[in-house]
Amino acid sequence: MSTLLLLPRNAVVAFLVAYRRIISPLYGDVCRYHPSCSAYALQSVQLHGVLVGSWWTARRLLRCHPWATGGIDDVRPRRRFRYLITPAGFVVAGHQKG
To answer: Keywords on this record (predicted)?
Structure first.
């Protein structure tokens, strides 16, 4: 059941991973923020899910413009994250230790 609930999240993760591997290198290192906008989107969706992660990503993209000062802008952590993130970036059921 939990795997089925993670399907939309992992579909977006798959899209973002593909974007980061195929499209993002064509632009080079142009992001004013760290992590880059695509890395921020990936982490945000992994941690917060599709709806909330997309909301945080949209807010970040609105701040990313030629006049932005940039800098470090990390994804807001969750107090309790009940899933594991695989080395490929997918979110799976399980509990993180620690």
So the answer is: Cell membrane, Membrane
Which of these, 19, 34, 21, 24, lies nearest to 73 by C-alpha position?
34
d(CA 44, CA 17): 13
- Total domain count, the chain: 1
CA 56 – CA 7 distance, rounded (Å): 20
Q: Residue 37's domain spans which residues? A: 6-93
pLDDT tens digits, 16-34: 999 999 998 898 888 889 9
Q: Which residues pair with 27 in a beta bridge?
A: none
Beta bridge partners of 93: 83
